[in-house]
Amino acid sequence: MRTATYFFIFLNLSLALFEEPAVYPLPFLVTSLVEVLCLLVFFGRLTHFAKVTPRNMFWKDTKNICIMVAILLSLTDLAIYGVLRIYGVKSIRWSRIVRPIFLINFAESRQIRRAFRSIRNTMPEITYVFLLFMFSLLMFSLMALKLFGERNLQTAEGLPYFKNYLEIVFDLYVLVTTANSPDVMMPAFEFSSWYALFFIAFVIVNTYIFMSLFLAVVYNNYKKHLKVVFGGGNCD
């Protein structure tokens, strides 16, 4: 049962590769039939679990409710998408986002739920570090707007350089990952080499300090909650 459940969960998640927009597109009829088959298996698994579980316990279990709601949402979305497709109306399969619910909420996925619970419990404790990082990013973006916005600089593509505040926030956020380094700083550097100090300060503060701090907080808190979940005997 466990192997079959995991197989159909994997098959259901894999449909994203074959549904429009797809990496390897298949006809809608094929993907819809496979999805209906998976949903029937999930419903059968849930029905079997209901047969061996006291009714009051079954309906009090949030996991069972989540699976039932996910099945209903998936079937509803599939039906609506199919009808709109018949009439030539383009739409989006919004129910794709509920598919991981099957992976998390079946009884066989106890270890995944424990890890997920640890991540959930870790989130509030890293919020303060994340807010500090965002404050730093927003302040550096404001300084960049004041430093470069009025100098009529242009990128290599001939576009205005650091004129829009939200675009600056995004560019500097990408710079934290160093994915656009050194391209993002070249127009300012060509105008004056002293402007490199701004980007050096930004990388030191946000990439080396905040990202290291963020990683340490995430790791320590996740490990702490993981020990509580696995060591506390919680089998939910």
Automatic annotation (TrEMBL):
Q: Mostly located where? A: membrane
InterPro entries from the xrefs?
A: Ion_trans_dom
GO CC terms in record: membrane
Membrane-spanning residues:
26-44, 65-84, 126-145, 165-182, 194-219
GO MF annotations for this entry? monoatomic ion channel activity
Q: How does it sit in the membrane?
A: Multi-pass membrane protein
Where is it localised?
Membrane
In this chain the Ion transport domain maps to 6-224
Instruction: List the keywords (alphabetical).
Output: Membrane, Signal, Transmembrane, Transmembrane helix
Q: Which positions make up the signal peptide?
A: 1-16
Q: Name one Pfam family in it.
A: Ion_trans
Q: Which PANTHER family match?
A: TWO PORE CHANNEL 3 (PTHR46726), TWO-PORE CALCIUM CHANNEL 3 (PTHR46726:SF1)
What is the protein named? Answer: TPC2 protein
Q: What is the species listed in this Swiss-Prot or TrEMBL entry? A: Rhinopomastus cyanomelas (Common scimitarbill)
